[in-house]
């Protein structure tokens, strides 16, 4: 076996030292600056009558960016509101009519029932009195027959006979008067019962009116829904920013007619940007969530912007065409996001090419 010479040992030591010195001190990623973009589009078509912002303008949440022509919708809203007012007036009139009918029916029904009961009670009292008088009359008639026999025999005087005849006549007159009074009371009872029956028929009229009211209420609800629909369309003629941010793109000019769905503005919150790059599978173990990082852009080569690793994809994908990594031969990569801690003066913009690095310790 050949022995290593001193020169060979020296060469081997240099190779080993060189190999150990190749340990990476930082992990670099290429990518670009991105942000959560909000596209503001026209939900309805129409002519743009006002544009209030330009690219680069900072806007508040809810701030108006542009307006579409709303004259036709405003006229439609007025017509719809007029229909609602008319239907509400009709509904109120029917409700008042029903309330009056119900109140009138209640009063009349109670009065009729009371009249019937009073007449029945009086009739019952007269019937009792009439029966008593008829019993008394029967007794007097028997007495009268006996007194006539006694008179014919000369036992009693004529005055006594006339006295009992007068009493019988008086009782018969009272009984006839009671009969007439009882007949009048029976008529009152029949009239009260007729009124009660008519009141019940009136209840059917109220039930029909309630059905009409229910139908009209449904029409009012439908008309109100139509008003709300037009109001929603009117609101859609006003384009507002959904966030506090910066208008980064404007795709419309005043006077332009736009179709439904066309994007007119893009707004981004420039204080919440992030770097997005792609990490080769072979380097995946070097990165973890929460690691401190730095981002650099060509526009400001002397500045580095602090960031933190906020997202590491758990799925591999092919390297995007727009990204040129150092390991160009590696096809499988993982998307990585690094949230920028600050953006002084909003100098960083979405779409800027950038490079990020993480110091490995």
UniProtKB/TrEMBL annotation:
The keyword Methyltransferase does not apply. Residues 40-268 form the CzcB-like barrel-sandwich hybrid domain. Its main location: other. It comes from the Bacteria. Gene3D superfamilies: 2.40.30.170, 2.40.50.100, Designed single chain three-helix bundle. Keywords: Coiled coil. It is found in: Cell envelope. Residues 70-233 form a coiled coil. GO terms for cellular component: cell envelope. PANTHER family: BLL5650 PROTEIN (PTHR32347:SF23), EFFLUX SYSTEM COMPONENT YKNX-RELATED (PTHR32347). This is HlyD family secretion protein. The lineage of its organism: Bacteria, Pseudomonadati, Aquificota, Aquificia, Aquificales.
